[in-house]
Amino acid sequence: MSKIEIKQLTFGYDSQENMLFDQAELNIDTTWKLGLIGRNGRGKTTLLNILQNKLPYQGQVIHQQEFVYFPQQVKETNQLTYDVLLELSNCELWEIERELMLMQTDPEILWRPYASLSGGEKTKVLLALLFTDDQHFPLIDEPTNHLDVLGRRQVAEYLHKKKQGFIVVSHDRQFIDEVVDHILVIEKSQLEIYQGNYSIYEEQKRRKDEFELAQNQKIKKEVTRLKKTAAEKAEWSRSREGDKTKKRVGFIDTEARRVDRGSIGADAARTMKRSKAIVNRMENQISEKEKLLKDLEYIDPLNMFPNQSHHKRLLTVENLQLGYEEMLFEPVSFSIEQQQCVAITGPNGSGKSSIIQYLLGDFSGQAKGEVLRPATVSISYVRQNYEDNMGTLTSFAQSHQLDLELFLNNLRKLGMERDVFHTRIENMSMGQRKKVELAKSFAQSADLYIWDEPLNYLDVFNQEQIEQLLLQVKPAMLIVDHDQRFLEKVATQRIDLQRIK
To answer: I need a surface site. Which of 30, 305, 370, 440 has the fewest CB within 10 A?
Structure first.
């Protein structure tokens, strides 16, 4: 059993005001199957790079490990997949075939050009390669990207059965639940370890936050009381000083004239000194109390304002089939009414996004069946591919006729830092660009919302925000996503596409 020790880790990028890590401490047992989570931009991939000594940092990272990182960088994509893997690592064919079989994947894909593989197939062959190497500690960054429900289940079962430890970054809560036994959370600029899977962490975090919130409220009340008392003492001290001044200049009544003026002055000075000491002590107490306040992770609720359409039914689909040379799926029928969320599910390549394209008038293949919707129904669309979003946030909002304040406010609530507001969209990270695409839809008052894989690149905190928003607002919606926990919460109906055999 070996350890990875992190001592007083401090790191930040020059372009950011705040440190990602500030004197962070951590001890990791390398036998753990560790899930790494945290808000977008908090430093998950950065931490993996620090472990690999790819970034300069202050502090110490002590270990006896050699690391291997997923996803590996593939340069020559036109070669056979097996040749690509040989260039990445010194592995035996039988080892790769064994790992693919454990992932319930046909080893024949090794003899296809790498460029011809789907995103899910590429994920599987690179993971298979990763685990042929039992000499290095695996750092697995977002393995669920591009995987459909079946692919995620297969990879989850595969990782669950592995005996060696690893660190995995994923925003799929169900996937994390199934594969890890410890959770590492980047909370603000610190690192926290929780024993158990994501659900256990979530419950522990909820209880911890409730306790700390109650403590914060108690401390704030005590600080308010101390400040009020200190203000009263300070005012009393000032009034005594005034009394002393008046007496010095002779503003005293007849009876006071009989009292020794030196005695009065000395008494006032002593009283003032005592009151000032009391005020100083209270200020010190206030300062110490305020240091006890916990810097809690607040997740602000998002806002969206769907149209209040007079149409009860917004979309009707009857016996729809789509395809090119051959049809992709068996006929499907469904309808969407006010406050209904219909989810389309199915394996990669079954035609989920094709249905969205057809509804929007962008499908170039052949179609059978009928689609009915009122001519006046307005649609807000979150795209799976949004690389053409460009320019400043202000110009983007203007070009899409968005309420700029609502648009920027939702971006801020999604966790986008204010210094990023001045970055052009094309220069943002993929997670930040996804937030722009979503915030655009939040700011559009539409009758029907169509979202294609909205959770890609979003952290678990953003996912919870979106869940809460949809459950509260209940917009009419057609949605495609592979996150089963998300769909179980928000979908009122599920349409599972069946491929034509």
So the answer is: 370
Structure tokens at 4: 């990875």
Q: Do 144 and 85 contact (CB within 8 A), yes or no?
A: no
263 pLDDT band, cuts 50/70/90, is low
pLDDT in tens, 162-216: 888 999 998 888 899 999 999 999 887 688 999 999 999 888 888 887 877 777 7
**pTM (two decimals):** 0.69
Half-sphere exposure for 109 (CA within 13 Å, toward CB): 24
Q: Which helix (H) or strand (E) holds 200?
A: helix 198-248
Backbone angle region of 43, left / alpha / beta, with phi > 0 → left and psi within -120 to 50 → alpha: left
- The edge-to-edge listing of strands for the beta sheet with 33-38 is 67-70, 137-141, 166-169, 33-38, 182-187, 190-195
Beta bridge partners of 385: none
CB 319 within 8 A of CB 370: yes
DSSP state of 351: S
What DSSP character marks residue 377? -
Partners of 4 in the β-ladder: 28, 63
Cβ within 8 Å of residue 486, ≥6 positions away: 455, 463, 466, 467
Q: Which residues does residue 182 pair with via DSSP β-bridges, in sequence order? A: 34, 195
Asked if the peptide bond before residue 71 counts as cis, ω within 30 degrees of 0, the response is: yes
pLDDT tens readout for residues 369-413: 999 999 899 999 999 888 899 999 999 999 999 999 999 999 999
* Angstrom distance (rounded) from CA 83 to CA 81: 5
Q: How confident is the model at residue 97 (pLDDT cuts 50, 70, 90)?
A: very high
